[in-house]
Amino acid sequence: MIEATGLTKSYGSKTAVYNLSFRVLPGKVTGFLGPNGAGKSTTMRMILGLDAPTDGSVTIGGHQYRELPNAPRLVGALLDANAKHGGRSARAHLLCLAQLSGIPARRVDEVLDVVGLTQVARKRSKGFSLGMGQRLGIAAALLGDPQVLLFDEPVNGLDPEGIRWVRELMRRLASEGRTVFVSSHLMSEMAQTADHLIVIGRGQLMADLPVRAFIEQNSTGFARLRTPDGDEAGREKLVRVLAEAGGQVQAEPEGTLKVTGVELPRISELAHAADVRLWELSPHHASLEEAYMRMTQGAVDYRSSEDQRSGLQGPPQQAPGGWQQPVGPQGGYAPPPPGAGFGAPPPAHAAPPHPPHAAHQAAAPYRPEDAR
Ligand SMILES: Nc1ncnc2c1ncn2[C@@H]1O[C@H](COP(=O)(O)OP(=O)(O)OP(=O)(O)O)[C@@H](O)[C@H]1O
Known about the structure:
Layout: E1 2-11, E2 14-24, E3 28-33, H1 40-47, E4 55-60, H2 71-74, E5 75-78, H3 90-100, H4 106-114, H5 130-142, E6 148-152, H6 160-175, E7 179-184, H7 187-193, E8 196-201, E9 204-210, H8 211-218, E10 221-226, H9 232-244, E11 248-251, E12 257-260, H10 264-273, E13 280-285, H11 288-296
Parallel strand pairs: 3-7, 3-8, 5-6, 6-7
Antiparallel strand pairs: 1-2, 1-4, 8-9, 10-12, 10-13, 11-12
InterPro entries: AAA+_ATPase, ABC_transporter-like_ATP-bd, P-loop_NTPase
Region (Disordered): 301-372
Pfam family, one: ABC_tran
């Protein structure tokens, strides 16, 4: 078991991981999810003793990594698939690691076989594709036949066949009673691989729950409906009628209503009986990826925006038919209408505070019972 307690890591003024507490249990694949820069790799490096926590602690089987007797035989990890000497062959690279940990040479051939690299075992790894590099990294993690395995984004660069293979490998390792901790930024990938999820954003815990609970709560269908603009009385009446019929109704920012718990034909009947006209009534399915993005959208550090191509616009063009492009005061482009927020990112929802300025108590993580 891996156990983190109040784990915190700062690099100068940057707090990468803040007050993180969780357990990773044996016999399960535990997915470690978070957007780019959330602190997944930093956490994994601290678990492996490659970075010292600024505060808190993390143990494997009750011991810090550095205190473990013969750690490479107990813990295997894929952190960075490029961390190898490109001039060495795959086999030589693994032999080197095996010798350092007192692992017999025949084990090298076994793991090469497991990851499907036997045929290229004597080729220099610098010519390897990204996917082959990942396979070599996984072979290195498996060398000591460890009970605890950490994989940082193991499907990076793999083709669909490789992704399926990694998925099956993780599941098999967990079914053998091992502790498998695997990071990803893709919910869809974790939904197919993991039993349990730990979600972080801006270095803080956002959710710690079984994958099944996440799927049950987020993959149900829903209906979206819209009443005519301005018909507030009709809208309120419909909300009341739907609630009485056992539905959960949520107003959406676009003015639509999201309804769960009442089937589409029944919604239509209820609206008709209440004499409320509908402009829209449509079935929808929430995707897991959407649910995950909703959960973490406030914790995304790197957000793209429209390319403004500043200074690259040519002079205003005469459009066919004599229509003129709007021209701004400098002749470049017309300024946006007041309040339009030219290319501004969408407003963030419920962002966890940036850790350096955070209150000492981090926001409570999301757990299955919160949704009930
Ligand atoms: N050695 C370091 N020095 C300074 N800042 C660092 C260092 N390592 C990580 N960080 C910062 O800490 C934050 C967390 O980084 P980390 O690599 O752990 O995130 P991640 O969740 O693994 O992201 P990704 O999915 O993009 O790999 C980032 O803002 C990163 O820039």
